[in-house]
Automatic annotation (TrEMBL):
Gene3D superfamilies registered for this protein in UniProt: Helix-loop-helix DNA-binding domain (4.10.280.10)
InterPro entries in UniProt: bHLH_dom, HLH_DNA-bd_sf, Max-like/E-box_TFs
Main subcellular location of this protein, as a coarse class: nucleus
Domain BHLH: 67-137
Organism in which the protein naturally occurs: Macrostomum lignano
Chain spans, region Disordered: 1-80, 102-121
Basic and acidic residues bias locations: 64-80
Protein name, as recorded: BHLH domain-containing protein
Lineage of producing organism: Eukaryota, Metazoa, Spiralia, Lophotrochozoa, Platyhelminthes
Coiled-coil residue windows: 134-161
Subcellular location: Nucleus
GO cellular component: nucleus
Superkingdom, taxonomy of origin: Eukaryota
Amino acid sequence: QRQVSGQHSSRSRALQASGGSAGGGRSGHRSPSLSDREDMLLDSSNSGGAGGGGDFSHDSAALVKDRRRELHTQAEQKRRDAIKQGYDKLYELVGAAPSASAAGGAAAAGGGSGETNAKSLSKASILQRSIRHMEHLAKQKELQERELDKLHKEVMALKIMKMNYEHFVSSAGASGGAAAASSPQSQPLPEQVKFSVFQSVMDQLFAGFDRSTSAGSFAELSGCVITWLEEQCRPQTVHELSVQALQQVLTQYSQQQQGRQAPGNRL
């Protein structure tokens, strides 16, 4: 007991001396932190091996060690659970998609073994699939952006064509209405007249096509056809050919009608 009391008194004097030198003459003392208290308990357990006080200090040190080990284990388990949860979510996003067909075929053949094999993928495999999936998405995005730009250009071209056709129809309707008003004796025409107009337009187009194309080879024919379409099938050119065909057919039809009515007028 004298030895233990002497050790405690020497420890208290050492603490007072260190507190006085660190405090610079101040009266207040710093309360020991949790780690300091744990260190003190460990020191007391190592030095106080005799009597009931030594057993109590040893038990306290063991509790501190167990608590430290428990906290470290809990933190490590939380970290591992978070990593595992992240890999599980990543597998749900990219793991099942590439191997869906293979897993389905294996399940049909081996009774669901494909799903087990898919679930047993390593972390490196999941990360590799994630990289490939991101590269695939980047390529798809680039292709879709190009397609979207192409569609925007087509929409603009179609809008311009729509405006031109609306203008053409409105002007043609106005001229047709004026012509109908100026000829009150107009009558419905037979279907043969309509076919004659179409035939006349096609004959003129084929004549230009025959003059402009050559069938020496497929490449030569393709170039000639494209040139013919761009030069002789313009809306203005087709419009002029149609007007000429209408005038020609209507003139012939009028002459035929006059020839049929001539004998009756003579009688």
